Amino acid sequence: MKAVIYARVSSTTDRQNTERQIADLTKYAEYKEMEILKVFEEKVSGAKKNSERPIFVEAINFCKAQKVDMLLVSELSRLGRNAFEVLETVKQLVDEGINLYMQKEQFTLLNEEGKPSMFAPVMIATLSTCAQLERDNIKFRLNSGRQLYIEKGGKLGRKEGSTKSKEEKAEEYKQVIKELKRGTSIRKTAKLCDVSVSTVQRVKAEFNL
């Protein structure tokens, strides 16, 4: 059985990493005697649209092209926190006959006959809606806290002079820019330049590469 691991964290800094997700899912794959064809890692908010998550899109397309049997994720929210986006992704997987394993929920999308289990649609819809509500609640609390901070005289934003100019960024990431202009993929550029995938994504977007 062929499998792919997709691991994601929301923070683009080194505060979070995907190591634990990958390690746990690898153990599961080995236990189930699955062949892991590829591991996809991404640092991007789950609130982003699929089109704004290039590694995720690459992972789904890889699964389709390689006729992968199983996509492994640590939990359903790794597919996103927008309920409609998650359901759209799940539908793509079902249409392609690709199973989905969610470690946290201990749940697989398809049964032994390759069809969604009886409770799969309800469970997926419920879990994805809960994930979106959780994100909305966090966003509300953060905005409320910022507003209170401002009302008390606080100021938001970076300190003056702490933001790098575009010219400074161009110099710092000149090798990244060079590779992207050559048409090198995001993941390969990250490895060649010894930077994170999220850094390459930011440079690509900022310099319209």
From TrEMBL:
Signal peptide residue numbers: none
**Entry protein name:** Recombinase family protein
Which GO molecular function, any one, fits this protein according to its record?
DNA strand exchange activity
Positions of the Resolvase/invertase-type recombinase catalytic domain: 2-153
